[in-house]
Amino acid sequence: MDGTVLIADDDRTIRTVLTQAMTRAGMQVHATSSLTTLMRWVSEGRGDLVITDVAMPDGNGLEMIPRIAELRPELPVIVISAQNTIMTAIRASEAEAWDYLPKPFDLPHLMHRSALALEESRKRRRTAPGSETTAESDSAPHAPATQRTDASEIVTLAGRSPEMQALYQSIARVMNTDIPVLITGESGTGKSRVARAVHGLSQRNAAGFQILDPALPGDRQQEDHLLSELRGGTLVIDEPGEYSPEEQLKLNRFLDRFTRTESTEPRLITTSQQDLNLLLASGHMRADLYYRLKGAELHVPTLVQRMSDIRILAEEFLRSDDLDDQGPGVGRSNGVARAFSPDAEQLLSQHSWPGNVRELKNTIRQLVAVSTRPVISADDVRSLLSGASAGSVTVPGSYTSQMIGNVPPGSGGAHGLMPGASDGQTDDGNLSDSVQKHLRRYFDLHQDSLPAPGLYQRILKEMEIPLFEIALEATRGNQARCAELLGINRNTLRKKLTTLDIHVTRGRKLM
Asked: Given this model, what pLDDT does residue 484 score?
């Protein structure tokens, strides 16, 4: 491997390691801690490859890339950075960096990418000597986004783990293409937020963003209205594997209209927990619909696969204003917590989080809502997580006896608001009579004091949890049938399942 590499990094250790590794591999290396020196070398015609950090004492490495392209269009630039957020990946893509590697990077991987970049540099010089136009590279996206979504608007995408870095780079590659995108991942991982990020970071961000109502296809008037609202925006199809054969047919016919509409064709994004390949093989998905939806795939990792991000996410959620938008007794307005103790952070990082990011966010919401001290302690976290692992449902409205306040320890059941629900007692009479008995006992437990504010919302959630869980069980997890059974539309059902943090396990299909 031959060629000359120019390295700009203010970390002496990184400069030394890279210089030694590349020298041993047969390359010549010039290393500096100054962007000014780097740009002088570039202007003098030195180097076949540039490797630069982003945050440098005398400037920003990303901002130098357009100037490098102007001076030396054949010179590839690899960006390395400890500012490893999604916005860094997007800006590296916009600047047309040949590659972007977040720190800490894998040295063999960087060496491999450097070898490929050097080879491309040689091809560029051979095919277009003196050209003022940079050759296209298959290894990096080049379409710039006109506007960006601020990183604070995509909290669920926070994270510095290698798994999230791979996702960020994949988003950067597909966000400004027109091909369909399939976003896969378990429940609660943040697939819908990734879909919004792809739209918000793309050139389509000024156009419409709509999640398709499964009942809409087939209604010509509603189809026309949706197409007029999208106008070159993004249409999200959620869980198409749960569509009935009739719904799949109507959806396919609706998508046929995309190429015939006078407005700009919308971009399709599909989100799915299920493997569409398996659904196609088993005959539960139409082949023509599958090939329409199956484009570039983005896989969202589970929280257990990115454990190093839990602390980052917990702190993001703790600071988030979203906690104020969940109704009385659930948001930040009734809590004072603003930080975690080190032991509390450690406990959060060690939990398995089967509900993924959604479960973590709801847990932080509960901890904040009932907090009486500025710092959330390990005991606070341990009490909540042990209650969840003992069988209680972890949702914003499910408070153990400790959370409610004023209720003596041990006086409440697993759900807190229903004290007799787990004490072996049975209730006679209708549902209304049973609820009334539980509520009277709950108020009696407080004696002369009143329950914590927000009782109405908490009671509604206590009633909704078993209703939705039992209805889902009866319909074997089929959300379309469950929505029909309850007499609500599927979007309303999904919003409720998200709010209540109810995880859907699809049962065996009945033929």
From this structure: 83
Q: pLDDT digit string (tens) for 453-504?
A: 777 777 787 788 888 888 888 888 888 888 888 888 877 888 888 778 787 7
Instruction: Report the C-alpha gap between 207 and 227 in whole angstroms.
Output: 11
Neighbours of 285 (CB within 10 A): 22
CA-to-CA distance for 511 and 311, rounded, in angstroms? 45
Provide the angle, in degrees to the nearest 10, between the axes of the packed helices 61-71 and 35-43: 10
d(Cα 154, Cα 190) in Å, to the nearest integer?
10
Rounded to a whole number, what is the distance in angstroms from the first to the last CA of the chain? 60
Q: Is 138 helix (H, G, I), strand (E, B) or coil?
A: coil
d(CA 311, CA 332): 19
d(CA 490, CA 213): 7
pLDDT at 1: 65
- Reported as a single tens digit per residue, the pLDDT across 37-89 is 999 999 999 999 999 999 898 889 888 999 999 899 889 999 988 877 777 88
Contact (Cβ atoms closer than 8 angstroms) between residue 79 and residue 92 = yes
What type of residue sits at position 133?
T
pLDDT above 60 for 17: yes
Looking at the chain, how many residues does it have?
A: 511
Q: What tokens were used for 249?
A: 């047919």
Cis status, amide bond into 374, omega within 30 of 0: no
Other C-beta atoms lying within 10 Å of the C-beta of residue 295:
18
- In Å, the largest CA–CA distance within the chain is 90
Q: Which of 246, 211, 248 is nearest to 226 (CA)?
A: 211
Residue 152: other Cβ atoms inside 10 A = 11
Alpha-carbon Rg for the chain, nearest whole angstrom, is: 27
Question: What CA–CA distance (Å, rounded) separates 433 from 503?
Answer: 29
Nearest CA to 452 among 326, 332, 330?
A: 330
The predicted model scores a pTM of: 0.59
Q: Judge whether 361 and 321 are in contact, CB under 8 Å.
A: no
Residues contacting residue 100 through CB under 8 Å, at least 6 positions apart: 78, 79, 80, 81, 88, 89, 92, 93, 140, 169, 172
Q: In whole angstroms, what is the distance from residue 145 CA to residue 202 CA?
A: 5
| Apex 359 CA angle, 355 and 365, nearest 5 | 175
Tell me which amino acid residue 230 is: L
- The H-assigned helical ranges of 61-185 are 61-71, 86-94, 107-127, 162-174
Task: Give the Cα separation of 298 and 300 in Å (integer).
Answer: 6
- Three-state DSSP state, 419: coil
Q: Dump pLDDT digits (tens) for 313-364.
A: 898 888 775 554 444 333 454 567 788 999 999 999 989 898 899 889 888 9
DSSP class per residue in 329-372: TTSGGG----EE-HHHHHHHHHS--TTHHHHHHHHHHHHHHT--
